[in-house]
UniProtKB/TrEMBL annotation:
Domain Metallo-beta-lactamase: 11-154
Originating species: Desulfosarcina widdelii
SMART domains, alphabetized: Lactamase_B
Enzyme Commission number: 3.1.2.6
Name listed for the protein in its UniProt record: hydroxyacylglutathione hydrolase
Keyword annotations from UniProtKB, A to Z: Hydrolase, Metal-binding, Zinc
Length: 232
């Protein structure tokens, strides 16, 4: 399974997954760029879908379907663990509510397409209001191997690392992460996220001390998650 990343809007990221001559578009807002890539590589867009229903992610999907004859898969109809067949290779759908209640993540090969659930260096806003669901979704993603690559829905890396430095100024992993950041291809591994991303480090003693310093409870993992999510 191969993946191509496309930039559109101010900082949005969309994706094309392809195997053989078959392709799947996820958050296909970069319509013209995707169509050009399909032509250049002699690919047929078989399927198109989204990570969640926010307009900056669904924009372009219908246009791609109309231009290519691809089948549209409504992300709201997926079941957790459902697989999408792409030329004999599986793309697994995981339900990851939190940012929105309809958020999904796609797992294929050695990568995750996480939409606005997990960013490179941070996590999404909890627009759903359900922090417990968000916590469960983050734990689900953290259970994947550290070698899994994270492809997110936006490039927020510069702002995210600045905030991580503000919270944990002595974390040397942040500088190493920043040195590997490539604005032309935004990706990290889960191992790197566990070392840098404050919202994945809720069990790390450094983050526990930070939450405790704000007078917040840290007795359970969920309390520690809730605490770090509340710090601005």
């Amino acid at each position: 399974m191969k993946i191509e990343q496309f930039f559109y809007g101010r900082d949005n990221l969309g994706y094309l997954l392809y195997s053989g001559d078959s392709a799947l578009a996820i958050d296909g807002g970069a319509v013209q760029e995707i169509l050009a890539f399909l032509r250049l590589n002699r690919l047929k867009l078989e399927l198109a879908t989204n990570t969640h229903g926010h307009g900056d992610h669904t924009v372009g999907t219908r246009e791609l379907v109309k231009a290519t004859g691809a089948d549209y898969l409504d992300h709201r109809d997926f079941a957790d663990g459902q697989t999408i067949d792409l030329n004999g290779e599986a793309v697994t759908v995981r339900l990851t509510p939190g940012h929105t209640m309809d958020s999904v993540t796609f797992a294929a090969g050695d990568f995750l397409i996480t939409g606005d659930t997990l960013f490179n260096g941070t996590v999404g806003n909890c627009f759903s209001g359900d922090l417990k669901a968000f916590y469960r979704s983050i734990c689900l993603l953290m259970d994947y191997p550290g070698t899994m690559r994270v492809y997110a829905g936006h490039d927020y890396v510069a702002e995210s690392l600045a905030f991580a430095r503000h919270l944990t100024p002595d974390n040397a992993a942040i500088d190493r992460y920043a040195a590997r950041y490539d604005k032309s291809h935004v990706v990290s591994t889960l191992e790197e996220e566990r070392a840098v991303n404050p919202y994945l480090r809720f069990d790390d003693p450094e983050i526990v001390r930070l939450v405790e310093s704000r007078g917040l409870p840290t007795n359970t993992a969920y309390q520690r998650w809730e605490g770090i999510m509340s710090i601005e």
